[in-house]
Amino acid sequence: MSDAKCANQIICDNIRAQLEHFRWPEAQQAGLIEQILGLSTSQAYRKLNGSSPWQLAQVEKLAQYLNIPTSTLLVNRAEPDAPATPAANEQELIPAILHLNNQSGEAHCWIQLGEELADDSCAPLLLAKRLHDCWHVFPGTQFDGEGGHEVTYLTIRPPKRANSKRLLVAVLDDKDADLLSAILVQQGLFALPYYQSQALLQALPQEDFDAFVLDWVLDEPGSCMQVIETILRHSPNVPIIVLTGYALEHENELSQALQTHGVYYIGKPAPGSILALQIKNMVTNALEPAGLN
Q: The Response regulatory domain covers which part of the protein (predicted)?
């Protein structure tokens, strides 16, 4: 079996895919790289064929020129039906939050960890650090010499569930969907993040969700109760957990929601690991009666 692509090769493939939209010959593609990054012709060719490693600043500059998110050039976007490689096996991938510019999490991703970094003498393209309950991925230039691992594989496509016993949870939160999903996965669940209710509702026919975790206060038109009603019409026996730190402000609406069978409530804030365990127990207990029928 072949090894998974290295991060540099993934970047090369993504850049070539973007440049092929212009239908240019390789010489013209190299000329564009040369012009944008201020490289020599030979350096531009080496970038295109992967023999010269890409630096994150170069990837960001090229993404800005192409008017696409930098993450589009960084993450593996293999075809859904492509054969799984050893590194793409669910047993070897862990969830993480991808950061590109010292800002909030930009993408919910899955990574394979390489060797632990001993010093900053040779910074990798991407590094991973475990912070609190979750792994975070940063540019290698941000390595401070403590507690980092090289990232040898990164994808935004979550691996398929290993078996039907692993619960699949949909997480709707317009601010923290990625972080909460990563925490739930590390606690033994399988979670998919959604930042907009419409995206979640569109996924209902395609995904066989075992539970839903919804933030009660959503920064969008409509209400969480409307989302709950739509979910229940599609999946009447699947438990729904509502999260909020504003229970007093929404006491009447929450009370109405909690009178609905299968709807539960957990307050915010709560330590991530404890919150995940509470949700896991609720989901498991809610599903046990259905399994006895």
A: 166-283
